[in-house]
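Appendix B, example 12.
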Amino acid sequence: MKNHNFQIDELIEHFANSLPALPNQPVKETGTKILELINQLRQENLFLKEKLRKADNDLKWMEMRADEWMLKAMEKSQNKSSL
């Protein structure tokens, strides 16, 4: 099964190759707008994927720091109780 991006690329290429032969101007304009929308959505999708990746990395860092702080707090608490 082909992935969606490859299928979309095939459709875009087919439309772009057929564009000059289309006699109907509104169809050409609509098709071109659809292609522009697809490209814009792809760019936004890539942007959001990168933001999600960065947020995931930030969460991992915060979890690591929280574990460190909890261990330090436990050690400090044990040191106070042993005095």
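The radius of gyration is 27 Å. The helical segments are 4-18, 25-82.
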